[in-house]
């Protein structure tokens, strides 16, 4: 608050300094409210950290709550001829893949164009349709027309072809003695192969012709040839689907590879380990937020917080409660090699878990995923976290409560500020009145002293 500089002029008193001291003393009443607001803000930040850890654990639980996880397959490939990827439709087994020939794209180059020195000189005088032919060995194929303008150059024709979705890319080749228009099929395989061009609808420019000696070059595209477990297969592309049900083969080179399709034990194991690590990370966050160091006299932001105790209790109850299991099924975490330690964290018996994943994935699926969204342990954990984080849950309610307290404290702070300002305004008025009164008294005193001095001087002359 700014001081009024004229205060004290009349009385000679340091009323500005006194008013500043009173202002500081009054504003000291705001400090407890500020500390309470800061405490609630720290709590909200800590709740946010806890919420993040809970969300991470829930994500790990959701991964285990997906029944398709336990049906996923993986492929392993020996040899460099192919690579492979399997879907859930694949069947477990081993397949020998022998790649005889890779699929290739066809190409076609015109005869050398004579009568032009530059690719920008007109090649045709009258435009029309240039037909790209996809025909081979006398078989009836397809023809794709490309519109060519009057007086088009070789460069113009190339650009017109490339502007169309014609199934080829065009370029210009200089063979050392002249120019040719070269086309390459954009797809591999015999049926997609470009095999010729029909210029009959175009009129060549004067002096322009195709060479009789440097003739057109036609390289036919080929299908990939392979066999799987002795069965011959032809494919227009090097990505082969359907040769093995549910498996996509990518042909890399000629040769032989063995493709093994098996249950994806690694994905299941990573999901289970992620679940344990997610819970242990949550437990670590809770320990940090509720820690107390007697030597340093420091405490975590949520030490003694009831919401934290409720969260720990609910999760411990779910994890230790298990699920209802059918005959021979798993009902407790201990059954699959996961135990709850004395410090509250989870621990994995690696050998037991590996055995379960290798031999009992169906039972593992029943245990974690169940037959409904919340039928398995993972679903129960996820649902519990959702409830805890909801508006009426332990964590959601704690966050809402802290936010409400901050709002209430901010209102109280504003009212207190207004009260302090009113008090200081009253002090300013009173100090101003005091300053004026003392100034008036000083003036009266000075007047009386002057009168006394005059009287004394008069008496001295008499």
Structure notes:
The protein is an alpha+beta fold. It folds into 3 domains: 1-72 and 264-462, f41 fragment of flagellin, N-terminal domain; 73-102 and 224-263, no CATH class; 105-219, Immunoglobulin-like, CATH 2.60.40. Helices cover 43% and strands 24% of the residues. The chain is built from 9 helices and 23 strands. It has a 5-stranded antiparallel β-sheet with strand order 1-19-3-15-16, with no helix packed on it. Strands 9-10-4-14 form a 4-stranded antiparallel β-sheet. Strands 2-18-17 form a 3-stranded antiparallel β-sheet, with no helix packed on it. A hairpin with a 4-residue loop joins β9 and β10 (179-188). The longest helix has 68 residues, at 394-461. The protein is flat. Keywords: Bacterial flagellum, Cell projection, Cilium, Coiled coil, Flagellum, Secreted. InterPro entries: Flagellin_hook_IN_motif, FliD, FliD_C, FliD_N. It comes from Billgrantia kenyensis.
Write a compact overview of the structure shown:
By secondary structure, this protein is of the alpha+beta class. The protein has helices at 15-27, 31-64, 154-163, 265-289, 306-321, 350-359, 361-368, 377-389, 394-461; strands at residues 73-78, 82-86, 93-101, 105-109, 113-114, 124-126, 128-134, 142-148, 168-174, 179-188, 196-198, 203-204, 209-210, 217-219, 224-228, 231-235, 239-244, 247-251, 255-263, 292-293, 298-299, 338-340, 346-348. The protein has three domains: 1-72 and 264-462, f41 fragment of flagellin, N-terminal domain, CATH 1.20.1330; 73-102 and 224-263, no CATH class; 105-219, Immunoglobulin-like.
């Amino acid at each position: 608050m700014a001081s009024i500089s004229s205060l004290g002029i009349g009385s000679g008193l340091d009323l500005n300094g006194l008013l500043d001291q009173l202002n500081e003393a009054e504003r000291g009443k705001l400090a407890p409210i500020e500390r309470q607001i800061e405490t609630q803000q720290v709590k909200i930040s800590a709740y946010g950290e806890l919420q993040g850890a809970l969300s991470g654990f829930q994500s790990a639980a959701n991964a285990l709550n997906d029944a398709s996880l336990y049906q996923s397959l993986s492929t392993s490939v020996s040899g460099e001829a192919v690579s492979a990827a399997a879907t859930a439709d694949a069947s477990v087994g081993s397949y020998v893949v022998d790649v005889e020939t890779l699929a290739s794209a066809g190409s076609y180059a015109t005869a050398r164009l004579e009568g032009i020195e530059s690719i920008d000189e007109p090649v045709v005088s009258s435009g029309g349709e240039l037909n790209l032919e996809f025909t081979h060995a006398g078989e009836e194929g397809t023809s794709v027309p490309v519109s060519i303008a009057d007086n088009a150059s070789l460069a113009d024709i190339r650009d017109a072809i490339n502007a169309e979705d014609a199934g080829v890319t065009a370029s210009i080749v200089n063979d050392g003695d002249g120019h040719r228009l070269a086309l390459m099929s954009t797809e591999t395989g015999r049926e997609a192969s470009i095999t010729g061009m029909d210029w009959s609808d175009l009129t060549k420019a004067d002096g322009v012709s195709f060479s009789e000696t440097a003739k057109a070059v036609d390289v036919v595209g080929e299908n990939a040839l392979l066999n799987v477990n002795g069965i011959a297969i032809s494919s227009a592309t090097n990505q082969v689907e359907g040769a093995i049900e549910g498996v996509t083969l990518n042909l890399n080179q000629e040769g032989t590879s063995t493709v093994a399709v098996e249950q994806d034990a690694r994905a299941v194991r990573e999901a289970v380990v992620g679940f344990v690590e997610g819970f242990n990370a949550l437990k670590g966050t809770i320990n940090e937020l509720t820690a107390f160091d007697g030597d340093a006299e420091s405490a975590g932001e949520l030490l003694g917080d009831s919401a934290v105790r409720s969260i720990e209790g609910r999760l411990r109850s779910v994890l230790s409660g298990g699920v209802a299991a059918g005959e021979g099924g798993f009902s407790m975490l201990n059954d699959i090699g996961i135990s709850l330690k004395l410090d509250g964290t989870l621990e994995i018996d690696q050998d037991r878990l590996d055995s379960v994943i290798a031999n009992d994935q169906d039972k593992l699926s029943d245990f974690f995923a169940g037959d409904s969204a919340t039928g398995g342990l993972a679903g129960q954990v996820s649902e519990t976290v959702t409830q805890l984080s909801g508006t009426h849950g332990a964590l959601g309610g704690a966050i809402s409560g802290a936010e409400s307290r901050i709002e209430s404290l901010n209102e109280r702070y504003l009212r207190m500020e207004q009260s302090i300002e009113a008090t200081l305004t009253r002090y300013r008025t009173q100090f101003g009145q005091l300053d004026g009164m003392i100034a008036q008294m000083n003036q009266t005193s000075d007047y009386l002293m002057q009168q006394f001095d005059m009287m004394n001087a008069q008496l001295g002359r008499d």
